[in-house]
């Protein structure tokens, strides 16, 4: 069976789809993952994926492209050439799978399943409805099972990526803690002054600290690292970042892609979680986690990209000492 899995949004979202992808791969001869450009690097790290197709959907992302007949036609042609027997469309609880399902119908995909609140007409063969409050990783697995792809025997359902490289040449030898100060949306970020405070306090407590960030975050990582931490801002590809996170004692991160990548390599996470989306659906999955941040703040469930509350109190009232205590607790639990 040739199968297609679709997850069109971000890096972390694609990682959360990983257990469902493995379920599909266990009963398929070939699995293609159709994703957006922000999720492509994650897609290439998932076990069970034979091919990655990248397409930027006009209904996804912070700045989606305009609708283009030529672009849509090219995608449909490409999918038709894949001759897929079945397709699993994975979306977040607030997204509709139906635009994607329409394109897959036009491409002649044999059987299509998705989680859909909206009536799908003839667009879906299997319409699943997720259980209330289900974590995104679990909801994806449930949808795969509804389409005929239960978890394979012996699979624990946790996040997973292909083995990352050795990164000791970047981090140095010996134990360390990772702090990732950036976030995909400002509303989810812990303040730089708080991050710098945590770096100093962790160093005072005897920890080596490694600060990570993307190419566009080098100013932030430099500020947060100061003269204390190892600054890896802009120096890690996603695969290399996976290696850095895998060897850390604990990862400190907001609700953003690297927190899910830490979970995928089995590292505990101190999660600075702004409640703009529910932690029950989006917290790091399958590893020990300590959640920090006021989950009852006025911004809760707003899905805001920029904090709507002056002073960003849900996160910036979390202190560096709070983070150090949480990190110590996770490290002690891991060592016991």
TrEMBL record:
Example GO BP: lipopolysaccharide core region biosynthetic process
Keyword vocabulary terms for this entry: Glycosyltransferase, Transferase
GO MF assignments: ADP-heptose-lipopolysaccharide heptosyltransferase activity
GO CC annotation: cytosol
Name of the protein described by the UniProt record: Glycosyltransferase family 9 protein
Record field: transmembrane: none
Entry-linked InterPro entries: Glyco_trans_9 (IPR002201), LPS_LOS_Heptosyltrfase (IPR051199)
Pfam family, any one: Glyco_transf_9
């Amino acid at each position: 069976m040739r199968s297609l899995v679709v997850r069109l949004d971000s890096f972390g979202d694609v990682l959360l789809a990983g257990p469902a992808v493995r379920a599909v791969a266990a009963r398929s001869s070939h699995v293609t993952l159709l994703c957006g450009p922000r999720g492509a690097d994650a897609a290439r790290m998932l076990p069970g994926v034979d091919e990655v197709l990248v397409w930027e959907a006009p209904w996804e992302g912070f700045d989606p492209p305009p609708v283009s007949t030529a672009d849509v036609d090219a995608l449909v042609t490409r999918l038709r050439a894949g001759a897929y027997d079945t397709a699993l469309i994975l979306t977040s609880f607030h997204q509709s799978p139906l635009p994607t399902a329409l394109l897959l119908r036009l491409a002649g995909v044999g059987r299509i399943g998705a989680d859909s609140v909206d009536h799908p007409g003839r667009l879906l063969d299997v319409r699943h409805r997720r259980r209330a409050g289900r974590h995104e990783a679990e909801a994806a697995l449930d949808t795969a099972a509804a389409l005929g792809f239960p978890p394979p025997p012996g699979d624990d359902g946790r996040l997973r990526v292909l083995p990352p490289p050795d990164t000791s040449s970047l981090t140095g030898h010996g134990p360390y803690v990772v702090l990732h100060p950036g976030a995909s949306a400002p509303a989810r970020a812990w303040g730089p002054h708080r991050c710098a405070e945590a770096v100093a306090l962790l160093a005072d407590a005897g920890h080596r600290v490694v600060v990570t960030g993307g190419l566009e975050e080098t100013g932030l990582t430099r500020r947060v690292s100061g003269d204390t931490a190892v600054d890896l801002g802009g120096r890690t590809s996603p695969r290399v970042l996976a290696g850095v996170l895998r060897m850390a004692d604990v990862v400190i991160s907001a609700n953003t892609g690297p927190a899910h990548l830490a979970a995928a390599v089995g590292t505990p996470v101190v999660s600075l979680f702004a409640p703009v989306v529910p932690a029950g659906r989006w917290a790091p999955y399958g590893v020990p986690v300590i959640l920090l941040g006021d989950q009852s703040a006025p911004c809760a469930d707003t899905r805001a990209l920029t904090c709507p509350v002056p002073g960003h109190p849900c996160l910036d009232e979390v202190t560096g000492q709070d983070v150090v205590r949480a990190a110590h607790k996770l490290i002690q639990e891991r060592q016991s």
